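Weekly modeling sync, notes
Attendees: S.R. (lead), two postdocs, one rotation student

Agenda item 3: backlog of single-chain predictions. S.R. asked that every request posted to the team notebook include the full sequence so nobody has to chase files. The rotation student volunteered to paste the first one in as an example of the format we agreed on. Action items at the bottom.

Example entry:
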Amino acid sequence: MFNLLKYYGSRYELFWFLVIARLKLTKKDLMLGYVWWFLEPLILMFVYWFLVTVIFQRQGENYAYFILCGLLPFRAVSASVNQSVSSVASKLNLISQINFPRIFLPLADVMANHIKLLAGFFIIIVVGIVFGFIPSFVLPLILIPFIVQWLLVSSLALFMSIVGAYVRDIRNLTPFFSRFWMYISPVLYAREELPENLQPFFSFNPMASVIESYRAIFMGGEISFIGLLGSLWVPFLIALTLLFFGTIFFAKFEKNIIKRL
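Predicted structure, as returned to the notebook:
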């Protein structure tokens, strides 16, 4: 395992090349280019706000901003998971001609989506100021849930990329899985709005604590470094465990990918 990680580390330049290539590719043929990094979350915020407050007549103070704080981070999760299914299977020509760490393919997609999320944090801050939420000294703590999310999604991407290479049908199911995961996470609602008998099940969803941490920081909740660590240590351990086994799983099955494809 140590030798494997050492080998991956020695090729870090290739990893960042793949990340940059992915970032350039996503907006290559669009007129507005990278402006869509900022427009997309605002459009999604408006769509869900209109659906919930206008159509379903649910009212809530600063609900549009409440949605944005959860929707934008989960958008990075959903995009990463959906892309990871084909991240290896769609690169047959590349992996058959060049010898490089194939694990970089799904991880580069995840990193690219989370770099977009970092850019999206700027949108959250600006919109927050409009709603009256002035950034405070706890804002740098946003990196803690961000890192936990990145580790968690990276681990899932490793599993999904191999499964997607061996079982092509999984590509059709992944968007439904991502959407279901969003609905059972507190993206469009708060944990307190659920029936009391369902609230304990949130502990089994690591993204629930991550999203609540984002909101506590952006919306001026009572949060501290120690408190944040206390709420995220379980998701962090889950992410590290999945990442460990995901790396082993990927290394074991990547050897026969070309034959399978």
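Discussion: group reviewed the output briefly. Residues 225-253 form the longest helix (29 residues).
Action items: rotation student to repeat for the remaining queue; S.R. to check formatting next week.
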